[in-house]
Amino acid sequence: MAREGAERDDGGMLHPIGEAARLTGVSRGVIRLWERERLINPKRTPGGHRLYSSHDLQRLRQIARLRRMDRLNAAAIRRELGMPDDSTGPQSPAPDLELGRRLRALRSARGLSLAAVAEQVGLSVSFLSAVELGQSSISVGNLFKLADAFGTTVPGLSADYRRDQRSVLHPGDRPRYVAGQGLVIIEDLIATPGAIEAQRIEIRPNGGSEEPYAHPGEEFIYVLSGQLTFWLEEQEQYTLEAGDSLYFRSTQLHRWWNDTRELVTVLWMNVPIVEAGSGDGGGRGTARHRALHREQ
Questions:
Q1: CA-CA distance, 153 to 95, in Å (whole number)?
Q2: CATH number of the domain to which 31 belongs
Q3: Boundary-marking domain end, from 26, 52, 81
Q4: 285 and 190, same structural domain?
Q5: What is the DSSP code string of 131-154?
Q6: HSE (side-chain half, CA atoms, 13 Å) at 97
Q7: Alpha-carbon distance 89 to 120, whole Å?
Q8: Is 24 within the bounds of a domain?
Q9: Angle CA(124)–CA(79)–CA(119) in degrees, nearest 5?
Q10: What DSSP character marks residue 275?
Q11: Which range of residues forms the domain containing residue 53?
Q12: With contact defined as beta carbons under 8 Å apart, do 128 and 134 qualify?
């Protein structure tokens, strides 16, 4: 007899999301997130309820393993497993050759090996090498990790980025980076080198960081428009609407996602944590902060 709530089709038993979560050890929220990331594509009842086949359950376990053991992002998992059956969503983003060259140049300029960068940002050497060679795409969250490691911002990863000493930036002059298949646009509001980072970030529907990330510092965000879902340490979840603000330690793992049909616009600020006892008047802070002291 079939379990309560389960159905059958020509391929065997179909399980509702609660049963799929129990059988795979993956929470319902994470399964829904993986569907938004186009990692899984379950069947739907006429009423819209998700149903998971034995093949789907196997795929969920594989995704969990690749996330946990190999620390792969969504794009890398799609390449590893292929797109889910009957997927009609957009294909995974094409690797960015210009980004790969820029990352390699930044790393070489700092005399860092791939192994050193991989250890600092928590990614594998093979994955970083593939990104540099233009053979692999990279998530927005991991872009933030690399920007900090190289002492810059995400727009600073653009090949045409240049430092600027102007105190005033007009909208058309802002350094910007378009990430996540065009779903996330990050603009620097401060181009003059300094300890404070301020950015205007646009997040289109289904856009987000993909990966959780963390770095030294303190962060403040203010939602200008739309509604943003925000997670801290995968334990605290906030729904931030226009006018809401959030402060947190940057060392907390954080990720974010636009789960609506409207554009989200956020003012985002980061300040490094300065530890007492440093000879230059401050501690380590972010890599960008450390690089600034070297330049001065």
A1: 20
A2: 1.10.1660.10
A3: 81
A4: yes
A5: HHTTSS---HHHHHHHHHHTTS-S
A6: 0
A7: 34
A8: yes
A9: 10
A10: P
A11: 7-81
A12: no
